Amino acid sequence: MNSVTGGLLDTTGRRVLHELVSTPSPSGEETAVAERLREFFHTHDREAWIDDVGNVRAPANDTVLLTSHMDTVPGEVPVEIRDGDAGAELWGRGTVDATGPLAAMATAAVETGVSFAGVVEEETTSRGARHLVAERAPPEAVINGEPSGWDGFTLGYRGVLSGEYTATSRSGHSSRPESNAVQQAIAWWSDIEAAFKTDEKTPVFERVTAKPVGMTGGLADDGLAVEATVDAQFRIPPRLTTDDVRDRAERLLGTNEVQWTDAIPPVMQSPRTSLARAFRTGIRDAGEDPRMLRKTGTSDMNLFAAAWDCPMVTYGPGDSAFDHAPDEHLSLEEFDRAVTILETVCRDRT
User: Fold this and answer.
1) Of the N and C termini of the chain, which has fewer Cβ atoms inside 10 Å?
2) Predicted model pTM
3) Tens digits of per-residue pLDDT, 72-126?
4) Catalytic: 71?
5) Same domain for 116 and 62?
């Protein structure tokens, strides 16, 4: 660390942010980051341990649970501090999604004495969040860590329904006119798109968005059949349930050839909870008009809301336009402001 960089890492929060971002943690490989987080809490005289699935657990005052995910998507973004339009910026994989929010929450947790959990595999299976809700009692409130910008907080996410369509046909010469399994899979996806087509004037958050996320097809290993599969995801607005979308797909298309693999319900929290009010007040007192967000993706907050009946929001520094991007970076000043807001909200509740 050179003297210029060292001078910019002059707070506890900035130092732990830099250390965590400098530790690669793609989904399934979070051990090094988990050990660093556990050490961070021990250094601040807090109980902390790594649980059976790899989550970092630091229980304390359960009036608030601060939680964010430790994993990132793959891809190396060199870790460095650069000058940007908003001052010094930290570049690196995870600065936005979601190591930046994770570091902000760890910092706020040791400063205010509230509970903390760093969870694994949010980017893939949400294994950490699923284990957390199955194993611990509900807290009084949850602040989930994802980028919202320091002056915004997220109240809603669409849900997700995942499935795999499979088609099989007899093998035959490609000159024959009958449709093979690959054609059947393509036709199935065309029917799906038509069935869930939405008026473009409808906000994206209110739509069911169908998306193919993988496709394979070709001659079977035994040479006697043609096989094809389509992996599909449906993003679901809060006005519907995952069962609504599954039933519609099966009813409209008259098919039972889909194996449904996962279903996470949508979430829309009230802006009038005591937790949302604390964020609005804290952001206004810091000099900005608060932004209340609805996001078109899905997060661990969906799972927390389905299991725990308590106020919750999602919050964290960073511009989500840089999620998973090759130029992922975070303003250090914005990080500091987010830590301050988190500390203000936690102290308001404790």
Assistant:
1) N
2) 0.92
3) 999 999 999 999 888 999 999 999 999 999 999 999 999 999 999 999 999 999 9
4) yes
5) yes
